[in-house]
Specification:
Keywords: Oxidoreductase. This is Ldh family oxidoreductase. Belongs to the LDH2/MDH2 oxidoreductase family. It comes from Meridianimarinicoccus marinus. The chain has a domain of 211 residues: Malate/L-lactate/L-sulpholactate dehydrogenase, NADPH binding domain (Ribosomal Protein S8, Chain: A, domain 1), CATH 3.30.1370. It is of the alpha+beta class and 358 residues long. The protein is built from 10 helices and 10 strands. Strand 7 and strand 8 form a beta hairpin. A 7-stranded mixed sheet has the order 1-2-3-10-4-5-6, with helices on both faces. The protein has a 3-stranded antiparallel sheet with strand order 8-7-9, with no helix packed on it. Helix content is 35%, strand content 14%.
């Protein structure tokens, strides 16, 4: 049998995801918005947080933990800040609203900080900071993880999530600065991807309760993720929990709901999005030019022996995204099979009906 996999057109994948969401009661416009953002994650290379997550979203919609027809509102607002109530809807909807409102406020008063309560998993934070940089602004976002996989440093009780954080900045070069990371050595999405593909995980990502390394992703529930930089990563994840969770009246600590295991409860996921206009600091268009000069200095640094040339977070993303928009996305065989299975469950056409994977 042939193992060659043809790419799927971006528009076709978007339409499939929107149709799958619609089969679970999501209204057409919301389904199209979420599908576009999910596929955009894959276009920019965030495969662990793109269409790979469709199974989880459909499960929460079917279980009642995610509201298919949310009334997303601004619950609290000042000239520079706001809190959005996501009404337990798909997280992409409330985060997109937060991003747009933050940008609007930054244009008006120099800075916009918009928190989210009663949200849900919303894909990679890069989706909610890259637009700021493309508009000449700086972006900043963080979230309380959608499940607790980390104990407090030195402890064993799972009370902290991967708590991601992202930054963006404009540059006169082809790519804006976009930095998106979990505060753990690896994101849980990467481990789930390895599990789906039947591959082991490297040592140093997880340890068991005996402190020994875990490398079998199927045993992930037997241990916990490690924070980046030990106590430093732990402190950073706590700070994010305070800003994205407690400050917004959202979950943090023991009241965080595992959105994969529990499909019926509200997760009350907390996030925030920030936009900053350099003009408010008197820089106007100078920021992007200075940033580009600094980035050029970084790239020009002589590499260590055996190392690739220095890169800046975000380098190459624009060209890669344009190529994928034109040629389509080549998804791995395990994900293609899963999407076909989801299509069958939803009673819609299989997106990869012609696959012959031996």
């Amino acid at each position: 049998m042939s193992t060659e996999l043809s790419p799927i057109a971006v528009n076709r994948l978007r339409a499939f995801v929107a149709q799958a969401l619609g089969s679970r009661g999501v209204v057409v416009t919301d389904a199209e918005t979420v599908a576009s953002l999910m596929v955009e994650a894959d276009i920019y290379g965030y495969g662990t947080h793109g269409v790979f997550r469709l199974r989880q979203y459909l499960a929460r919609l079917a279980g009642g933990g995610c509201n298919p027809a949310p009334n997303i509102t601004v619950a609290q607002e000042t000239v520079a800040t706001a809190v959005i109530d996501g009404d337990d809807g798909l997280g992409h909807l409330s985060m997109a609203a937060a991003r747009d409102l933050a940008i609007e406020k930054a244009r008006a008063v120099g800075v916009g900080w918009v928190g989210v309560r009663r949200g849900n998993h919303a894909g990679p934070l890069a989706l909610y900071v890259r637009p700021q940089a493309e508009a000449g602004l700086l972006g900043f976002s963080a979230a309380v993880g959608s499940a607790n996989h980390v104990p407090p440093y030195g402890g064993t009780d799972l009370l902290i999530g991967t708590n991601p954080i992202a930054f963006s900045a404009p540059s006169t070069g082809p790519d804006p600065f976009v930095f998106d990371m979990a505060t753990t050595v690896a994101a849980m999405g990467k481990i789930k991807t390895l599990l789906q593909q039947g591959e082991p995980m490297p040592e140093g990502w997880m340890v068991g309760r005996d402190g020994q390394p875990l490398t079998d992703p199927a045993r992930k529930s037997e241990g916990f993720l490690l924070p980046i930089g030990g106590p430093k990563g732990y402190g950073l994840s706590l700070a994010i929990g305070l800003l994205a969770g407690v400050l917004n009246g959202a979950a943090f600590g023991s009241n965080v709901v595992d959105f994969t295991k529990d499909t019926t409860s509200s997760t009350n996921t907390g996030q925030f999005v920030v936009a900053i206009d350099p003009a408010a600091f008197g820089l106007n268009g100078d920021f992007a030019e200075v940033a580009a000069r600094v980035f050029s200095e970084m790239r020009a640094s002589t590499p260590l022996p055996g190392h690739d040339p220095v890169r800046i977070p975000g380098d190459g993303k624009t060209a890669m995204a344009e190529m994928r928009r034109k040629t389509g996305l080549t998804l791995n065989p395990a994900l293609r099979r899963d999407l076909n299975a989801l299509a069958a469950d939803c009673g819609i056409a299989l997106p990869f009906a012609d696959d012959k994977i031996g």
